[in-house]
Structure formats: C-alpha cells, structure tokens
Amino acid sequence: MSKTIMFLYAMTLFLFLLHIEKSSGVLIDCKTVKDCPTSYTKIYRCEDNKCRFSFVIGL
After folding, report:
1. I want to staple 53 with a disulfide (CB 3.0 to 4.6 A). Which of 21, 26, 27, 42 is the partner?
2. In this structure, how many other beta carbons lie within 10 angstroms of the beta carbon of residue 13?
3. pLDDT digits (tens, 9 = 90+) for 9-39
C-alpha cells in the first residue's frame, strides 16, 4: 500500500514539473496570427511580434 502511494506521489510530482516546464515555453516570433500555431484549446494572438495564447473554456 505504501509503495503504491509513493509511486503515485512521485508520478504526480514528475507530471507537475513536466507541465510547468512545458507551459513556460519559449515565445514564438510572428508577424501575423497565421505565423502562430493552431490549437483547439488555445487562442493565439500575435502581440509585439510574439505569439501569445489564452485558453478556451467551455468547449
């Protein structure tokens, strides 16, 4: 039982740190919105020649 809990704790910590690393990614250079990546869960905008996103809530 304790090994299972420790495994779940380690996996949660690992995934949390991986998520933080991934979400703090590098801003992509752009000139127009078409230069930004497409996504169903994020809305990208080109501001100050960098792609910035906001999340879509309530799909």
Report:
1. 42
2. 10
3. 998 888 787 666 555 556 889 999 999 988 8
The C-alpha angle with vertex 53 and arms to 25 and 29, in degrees rounded to 5, equals 60
Q: What is the rounded CA–CA span in Å between residue 59 and residue 57? A: 6
Q: What is each CA distance from 59 to 12, 30, 36, 49, 52, in whole angstroms?
A: 26, 27, 21, 28, 20
Cβ 59 vs Cβ 40: under 8 Å: yes
Question: What's the number of domains the chain is made of?
Answer: 1
- Its pTM stands at 0.47
The DSSP-derived string for 2-58 is HHHHHHHHHHHHHHHHHHHHHHTPPPPB-SSGGGS---SSEEEEEETTEEEEEE---
